[in-house]
Amino acid sequence: MADVAPASSESSLLASPFSSLTTLSHSLQPHYAALRLIPSRRKLSKSPLYAQMEAELVPLLSAVEQATHAQPSSSQLAHDRLRVVAWNIQRGRRLDALTHALKNDPTLRDADVLLLSEVDCGMARSGNRNVSRELATALRMHYAFGVSYLVLGDDVLENESGEANTLALAGSAVLSRWPIVSTKSLDLPELKDKFSSKSEKRLGKKRALAAKLALPSGDLWVSTCHLDSNASPIQRGQQLASLLRDVSTDGTRQLVGGDFNTTTYDASGTGALVADLLHKFFTKGFDATVNGYMTPEFSYEQPIFEVLSSYGFLHEGFNDRSQGTCFYDVESPYEEAKLRQKVGSLATRWLQRRLRPWNGCVPARLDWFVGKGLQPIAAGVVHVPRKDGIPASDHRPIFVDLQTG
């Protein structure tokens, strides 16, 4: 079965809000259980199963599903201003809350373009829904979804009931009220073998999705990316450099937005993380380290910002620096489980006690816009109220308004 195919029949198009639609599909689901039992990529590459799957799997892991909405919403379109929102939507697990916010929040509802990271397609943890397609349907927007991974195992606390995945795909998406005339799935340097991971076992690697939008003022390239958290600042800089190098030849107007994971930590391995923690504790002190999460360009994440400068991209004016985009809530079950996994129970309990002056919830600046050849006129971070006591995502959306006329 082809992994990217046009809508299969005239009746399916008539029932769809999209005038043109390519769909992702594959026949790999019967092999998920067997793949989970293979301990390493080296053994995978030598297995008869991989030889059987390879011709279908390889193109799937860089495929893009794309659709043109038959009647895109145009009531808010302005020809001299473009509002772009970037949001790590945490798989789309709270899809109804995400949709409600994007349709009703006074800032988000005026978005012309959405750059989304952590987007599921056929994952049980998010209801086996095609998250980008459902959002595009609800918002009457064109969309493109780029695959990064075939996901074989969930992260902590994500699918405790053990429901089966269908397509089992994860990646990123661009949604737009203006036409998407072309897309590119961009290969980023691989920093860690996700297939050999004991949690969230995956086939594939980090990728970014770039899309060319046809605006009245001319073409604009937008890209969404999600840099690695289990990496060092230097490695994140290498991933960003690869993306900027790829898109820099595509036109004079460029916008990149997403989760840059500017945590200020070297999480490339347990030893590196422990050494980093000790260095921060003894050279900067605890309070200064925590306060530095809001200014990562001055606090260990300089490689990211050096890369931006070398490729002529700016972050000044594209971001509201007064607010955090993610909050480390060390009392939440998810963050506590992740901490115990990375640093152990003793260090987790110590950290929870030490962060009591912050009520256990520390703001950080992880999400960014960077641009070239563009004039930002406003930027902000949107606080989305919790629904039923649960946030729509563990990140807050950010927006930038661009002068395009």
Identify the CATH architecture: 4-Layer Sandwich
Which descriptor suits the 3D outline? globular
Cα distance, first to last residue?
Answer: 45 Å
Q: Could you tell me the strand content as a percent range? A: 25-35%
CATH C-level category: Alpha Beta
Number of domains: 1
Q: DSSP helix count?
A: 12
- Strand and helix order: EHEHHHEEHEHEEEEEEHEHHHEHHEEEE
The total strand number stands at: 17
Measured as a percent range, the helix fraction is 25-40%
Mean pLDDT: 90
Low-confidence stretches: 6-14
Major sheet characteristics: 10 strands, mixed
Helix-strand category: alpha+beta
CATH topology description:
Deoxyribonuclease I, Chain A
* Overall radius of gyration: 21 Å
Summarize this structure as a short list of keywords or feature phrases:
single chain, about 400 residues, alpha+beta, Deoxyribonuclease I, Chain A, ten-stranded mixed beta sheet, five-stranded mixed beta sheet, about 30% helix, globular
How would you sum up this structure, described in words?
This protein is α+β, with helices and mostly antiparallel strands and 405 residues long. It has one domain: Deoxyribonuclease I, Chain A, CATH 3.60.10. The chain is built from twelve helices and 17 strands. The protein has helices at residues 10-14, 32-36, 41-45, 48-60, 95-104, 131-139, 233-247, 270-283, 286-291, 302-310, 333-343, 345-354, and strands at residues 4-6, 18-24, 64-69, 81-91, 113-121, 142-151, 169-176, 180-187, 202-204, 207-215, 218-226, 254-259, 326-329, 361-364, 367-372, 375-381, 398-403. Helix 7 links the parallel strand 11 and strand 12 (254-259). The termini are far apart.
